[in-house]
Specification:
This protein is α+β, with helices and mostly antiparallel strands. It has three domains: 6-177, 2-Layer Sandwich (Beta-Lactamase), CATH 3.30.450.40; 227-288; 292-456, Histidine kinase-like ATPase, C-terminal domain (Heat Shock Protein 90, 2-Layer Sandwich), CATH 3.30.565.10. The protein is built from eleven helices and 14 strands. Helix 1 runs antiparallel to helix 2 and helix 6 runs antiparallel to helix 7.
Length: 456
């Protein structure tokens, strides 16, 4: 094969550089880039061997990481010291190309055995300079005596520069990939946390729902005896009126007005039956589990119904009840049963607080509050709330009762907020304790039910 002219050789080298640059730009695998660089450099310089050594800082040596033409024991295994005792080391340390036309005539370097195994005579080394300093060395080896000229060195230096850029790009790609991996893991972790949070919130909602229901059952349980007594009155009246009506009808022939009296008794039976049914209906609404729904309600009527329900059987307690219901109070947008539970809890607390005092007065007022809200206040003449308890009244398990669980006021706060309002304790009272809660006024847009976040 005829030897190439200098111009043809330069054209060939420039074409190889351009083609390799395109390849390196489009390839992410650094090992593939280094292996291809060794092959192209060797073939373009018409030599059978080339290798690329990477500097290892911890070991202070140069490891052959890619090569062309070598037997299996070279790439990934052979190392040279990163000092001037080897051709690669000198190029690495000085930054200058190192050219040996005949290594047998040079006593300055100690060469690994594989040079002799491959009959290497001539070598040329150039530095690969990375972003953070010297990265490694590119070397072409020949089994013949050869003087690598300046064009060869320029060619090898061009490859070394492309390799350096590929190393930087590879590091960036690896860093980006690691960041993407970390981001993916964080997203998966976030998604898992969101799932767990959703599950925990659902469980919390279930527990809140159950707590509210149990609270109502507990309240109703404590009033069972009084309610039973109150129901016995209309039921006994019903039985008496029914018996009287029967007797009257049995003697209709003897008394012309018997029919009128029988009808009167039947009317009273109906009245007492409706009374007992009303009591049962009111109790069932408070106790039953159902979906929470907000609707416009008359707060005055709700206060009166709640007071009547709680005060069943308390006639002997000598409690003076004052209802101060402001006139022309607009309807409030609430869940009736939930707000009734707030009232029941507060009224029962007041009654229990006044057990040991002589003057027992329960005052319940309704007033317009801040814009868009109605305020409801429940106040008693009991011993009041100790200062050390006042600051943490609405925290769970805080109570002044001997057998109390300390959940009533926390439940009241939860229900008030669920209905769009809030609750607070009154300060600076001369005697007793007082609590006020606000409820939103129904607007013209409040024409449909609005499910609440709590199921009671």
């Amino acid at each position: 094969m005829a030897e190439l002219t200098t111009v043809d050789r330069l054209r060939r080298q420039q074409a190889a550089l351009a083609e390799f640059g395109t390849f390196a730009f489009r390839t992410d695998d650094l090992t593939m880039i280094l292996t291809e660089a060794a092959r192209v450099c060797a073939e373009c310089l018409c030599e059978p061997f080339a290798k690329i050594c990477r500097y290892r800082k911890d070991d202070n040596d140069l490891l052959v990481v890619a090569g062309y033409g070598w037997h299996a024991g070279v790439v990934g295994h052979v190392v040279s010291r990163a000092d001037e005792s080897s051709t690669q080391g000198r190029a690495f340390v000085t930054g200058e190309p190192v050219i040996l036309e005949d290594i047998a005539k040079n006593n300055s370097f100690s060469l690994p055995p594989f040079y002799a195994e491959h009959a290497i005579i001539s070598t040329a080394d150039v530095l690969i300079k990375g972003k953070n300093g010297s990265w490694g060395v590119l070397e072409v080896d020949s089994p013949r005596s050869r003087r690598f000229d300046r064009h060869d060195i320029v060619f090898l230096t061009g490859f070394a520069n492309i390799i350096a850029e590929a190393v930087i790009t590879s590091a960036r790609t690896a860093s980006m990939q690691e960041a993407i991996t970390q981001m993916t893991l964080l997203i998966e972790e976030k998604d898992q946390l969101l799932l767990e949070r959703t599950s925990h919130e659902r469980r919390l909602l279930e527990l809140q729902t159950e707590l509210l229901h149990v609270s109502r059952l507990n309240a109703m349980g404590q009033m069972t005896a009084a309610i039973a007594h109150e129901l016995n009155q209309p039921l006994a009246a019903i039985a008496n009126y029914a018996s009287a009506a029967k007797r009257t009808l049995d003697h209709m022939d003897a008394d012309a007005s018997a029919l009128d009296r029988a009808l009167e008794f039947i009317d009273k039976v109906q009245s007492q039956t409706l009374r007992a049914g009303g009591i049962i209906k009111n109790l069932r609404e408070v106790v039953e589990k159902r979906k929470s729904e907000r609707a416009p309600e008359d707060i005055g009527s709700l206060v009166k119904d709640s007071v009547a329900l709680v005060l069943f059987g308390t006639h002997d307690a000598h409690i003076v009840t004052k209802l101060d219901i402001a006139a022309d109070i607009p309807a409030v947008m609430i869940d009736k049963v939930q707000v009734q539970q707030i009232l029941i809890n507060l009224i029962r607390n007041s009654i229990e607080a006044m057990e040991q005092v002589e003057a027992k007065k329960l005052t319940i007022t309704t007033r317009l509050g801040v814009a868009g809200f109605v305020d409801v206040t429940v106040q008693d003449t009991g011993p009041g709330v100790p200062l050390d308890v006042m600051a943490k009244l609405f925290q769970p398990f805080v109570t002044t009762k001997g057998g109390g669980m300390g959940l009533g006021l926390m439940i009241c706060q939860t229900l008030a907020e669920a209905n769009g309002g809030r609750i607070w304790s009154l300060e600076g009272l001369a005697t007793g304790a007082g609590f006020c809660f606000s409820l939103p006024i129904a607007t013209a847009d409040d024409t449909t039910t609005d499910p609440l976040p709590l199921v009671a």
